[in-house]
Amino acid sequence: MRTSLISGFLFLAVFFVGQCHAAILQGIDFVSAEESTEVTLRIDKKARYVHNYLPASDTLPTRCYVDLYDTIRTQSMATWLPVDDPRLSKIRTGSYPTKLRVVLDLQKDDVCTVISSATEPFLVQISVTSPAGLLAKKLGASSQAEPAERAPLSEMPGTVVEDQPQPGAVPSDATTGTAAGPQLSSFTSAGRDEISVWGWAQGYSAYDINQQGSEDSDLSRLQGRAGVDWNKDLGAESSLKLRGAIDLDRLYYDSDLADEETDLTLHETYLQYNRSNWEMSLGKQLVRWGKSDQLSPIDSINPQDFRQFITIDLEERALPSWMLRNRWHGESIGFETIIQPWFKKSKIEYFDSNWAIYRNLRESIIANPSATDDLKDYVRDLRVETDKPGKSLDNMSAAARFTWQTEQSDFALSYHYGWETLPTITNFPVKNINYSGDPDPDLTDLQPGDFTDEKVLAKYKRQQTAGFEWETVLDPIGFRGEIAYIDHVAFLSSDLTSVRKPVIHLVSGIDYTSITEWYFNVQGSWFYIDDYSSEILYFEEDTVSLLGEISKPVWRGNLELSLQYNYTITDQSSYLKPSVTLKYFRNFECEVGANIFSGDDDTLLGSYDRNDQVYVRVKAFF
């Protein structure tokens, strides 16, 4: 049965392909002329966008911006670009969960007009012109045809009347190849053959606010990534893209028992063939399904790095995996298939870390003065044996996604027949444990017969996920969400092994970006465990949470203030992540923040209450 299912998906993968991945802003170009400045946004696929114009305030210059929905920056792009131009002072970008904002800081109260291309790669051109220059251009063009009445400034693209309460956003309909303005028909150079080299290096250090017992007092991490992209046009409607990247990762733990090693791995590396309405890619890739942030039940294609729990953003936790990915997209529908030949597990620690499955259990026992020497020697030798699926046709994974769009809404249905990337603990060597979830338990009352010579056994098992997702704009508020049925999810239980249960997980919310660039995101989560049993730790049968983010760029975008929050209504535990990010220097970011957990010891977020920490992250791009 499983072989037939995989074979069926393999057939679909070869003959059908689908859309539905985030578009990538590959570059920003600008050309300054006497009459205007032209800024070009180069995007790998069509993206729905909205453009707007903001008059100057007491603290901010005149700005025009474009919101690119379901779009991300290429990894080599800096967050802002200095511009030596009489009309522009800076071009900057801001990433939000559902869109990428490109902001042009203007020197004067000039006018911005926006047009886009009808073909891929998708190009958006922003023209910055003085009102007089734009009027002269319009009158000159109209005089060649027939006389036209002079248009007032309020009717010109990208301008507003001063007494208007707020500027109106101008939407596009990029899904059908038309924009809310003129079409840009010839905006690319034929015969493109480009090679670009990019990379970044990052340092991260975290320090406990209140160190207690056997906890880590600090954690440090060094990361780097270097890559090369090659883009080659094969004809008017076809092209090749080759990406290769390597990752360097070194995580330093405070614990003497922790395993520390430097990982040098292949990151995203793939070959992609593009046509006008379909594409096929083969290699190690990242795929993001789902519409919600930080907590996405549908996003099950790639494993994640949980060695720092949820203190790292969802996109940064994702790990690429080998796959054959095919995508086809029409004007309003799309279809995508994925075949994964090999299993890849998420990165976790079992012992000797504040974020490990069993936290600092070994060190807490070793540091306990009432523990016997035999017990201390025993826990020092605790080891984990993992059972991963082998490389065979029966163990392959497959996924499919069907999408459709209306003028203002996106929808998708998906199915993933794969593996749970977190382990199911099938055996724990210490018996007769009744663990409450407290990260610092007292095990000294256990009897000698409760300690066996067995190992911790961790097995990776099959998992199926069926999901539905949606996103729409109720101007000016975005509404999006997703719901998934997952047939088996592993939960840690009171005997320190796992039980697997079916789950329904719904995440839905709204987000809003004001004209002054305040960003508000509020999401609700309902997590239901079918056939619930009382020995499950950290979760009730129904767990309800409220999570989201508030952020605001200040100092002309050179500084960003942010607060991420997660409050579990069911057990009253919480997580807060306030941060300040400096983006003043080109190709350089510095973030300072804190991770603050609270709640009872037997709740998921509350069990990390002793892990409160301040951190510093420094990242440089090249």
What percentage of the residues does DSSP assign to strands (E)?
over 45%
What global shape is seen?
A: globular
How many individual β-strands?
34
The biggest beta sheet reads:
18 strands, antiparallel, barrel
CATH topology of one domain: Immunoglobulin-like
Helix content: under 10%
Please write the CATH class name of one domain.
Mainly Beta
Question: Radius of gyration, Cα only, in angstroms?
Answer: 27 Å
**In whole angstroms, how far apart are the ends?**
49 Å
The helix tally amounts to 5
Structure classification: mainly beta
CATH architecture of one domain: Sandwich
| Low-confidence residue ranges | 1-20, 142-171, 173-190
What integer is the average pLDDT? 83
Blueprint (SSEs and pairs):
Elements lengths: L1 H14 L7 E10 L3 E8 L5 E6 L8 E7 L1 E3 L6 E3 L5 E9 L2 E8 L4 E7 L4 E8 L1 H13 L26 E2 L11 E2 L8 E16 L9 E16 L5 E14 L9 E5 L2 E6 L3 E8 L28 H4 L3 E9 L3 E8 L20 H6 L6 H8 L3 E4 L9 E9 L3 E11 L4 E4 L28 E4 L2 E13 L2 E16 L5 E16 L5 E11 L12 E13 L4 E10 L4 E10 L5 E11 L14 E9 L1
Parallel strand pairs: 1-5, 9-12, 21-25
Antiparallel strand pairs: 1-2, 2-10, 3-4, 3-11, 4-8, 6-7, 7-8, 9-10, 13-14, 13-34, 14-15, 15-16, 15-17, 17-18, 18-19, 19-20, 20-22, 22-23, 23-26, 24-25, 26-27, 27-28, 28-29, 29-30, 30-31, 31-32, 32-33, 33-34
